[in-house]
Design brief:
By secondary structure, the chain is of the alpha/beta class. 48% of the residues lie in helices and 17% in strands. It is built from nine helices and eight strands. A five-stranded parallel beta sheet has the order 2-6-1-7-8. Strand 4 and strand 5 form a beta hairpin. Helix 2 (36-49) crosses helix 4 and helix 4 (98-107) runs parallel beside helix 8. It is globular and about 50 Å long. It starts with 6 loop residues before the first strand and ends with a helix. Cytidine-5'-diphosphate binds at residues 14-15, 19, 36-37, 40-41, 104-105, 108, 134-137, 185, 189.
């Protein structure tokens, strides 16, 4: 299917499979995939390593803001996979640990951090034909995106998916901890003052609780055909 050079925004709750879906869309239709959550996670890792966030989640906002101007966070393709880098260090694995997950949502409430990530996304996506996943892509980052999807799934299903993903990576999380983190992030993400997680008015909801990847791609193809007359 020949898809025009549109922007596709995939927003939604934690662990609803946004990135898996967005990556597959990128691969299928030759789009550039941008993972906005990875940028928030990289800033969080940086803040943890430089004691700019404390154990009680208190943030050294001024110092963090100052460091952002020289923080080189970007994506590089390694063996055909988009990986997150800080300078020349690949941080893809470290940013997915429960420790980073536990501090990322507080970090993502900081307006200066949001501006930093938004400007990176605009810079990386300036040539269009991009699919991005996050929380505020369709509402704030690219409000003119031609296609906006909003993904939801049941709590138990989401926590199980994230648990399995972590186990497959050799981590040893407690299921209850994973569930707790997911709920906490959902709450902080949807209640923060700057760009809270919410469905854009023109977004299409996809509840993928009981859908396979093939089901999802077939659903998307139908949406694209209807919307763009292709
Ligand atoms: O764990 P999951 O893949 O669902 O989350 P993620 O996409 O890696 O995002 C991690 C965290 O970054 C979220 O829980 C939000 O706090 C924050 N985030 C955000 O505030 N805005 C975005 N556009 C993307 C992520």
């Amino acid at each position: 299917m020949n898809i025009p050079n549109i922007i596709i925004a995939v927003d939604g709750y934690s662990s609803t499979g946004k990135s898996t879906f967005a990556k597959l869309i990128a691969k299928t239709y030759s789009f550039l995939y941008l993972d906005s959550g990875a940028l928030y996670r990289a800033v969080t890792l940086f803040a943890l390593e430089n004691t700019l966030i404390h154990e009680n989640a208190e943030i050294e906002v001024d110092a963090l803001e100052q460091s952002l101007s020289s923080l080189d966070v970007h994506f590089e393709y390694v063996d055909g996979q988009s990986m997150t880098f800080i300078g020349d260090r690949c941080v893809e694995t470290e940013i997915r640990t429960l420790k980073v997950s536990n501090y990322v949502s507080p970090i993502a409430t900081v307006p200066q951090v949001r501006n930093f990530v938004d400007s990176k996304l605009h810079e990386f996506g300036k040539n269009g034909r991009i699919v991005m996943d996050g929380r505020d892509i369709g509402t704030t980052v690219f409000p003119n995106a031609e296609l906006k999807l909003f993904m939801v799934a049941g709590n138990q299903i989401r926590a199980m998916r994230r648990y399995d993903e972590m186990v497959a990576k050799g981590q040893h999380p407690e299921f209850e901890e994973v569930m707790k983190n997911l709920k906490e992030r959902d709450y902080i993400d949807s209640h923060r003052e700057t760009s809270p997680l919410r469905q854009a008015e023109d977004a299409i909801i996809l509840d993928n609780s009981y859908l396979t990847m093939e089901n999802q791609m077939a659903w998307l193809e139908m949406v694209l055909k209807n919307k763009f007359d292709i």
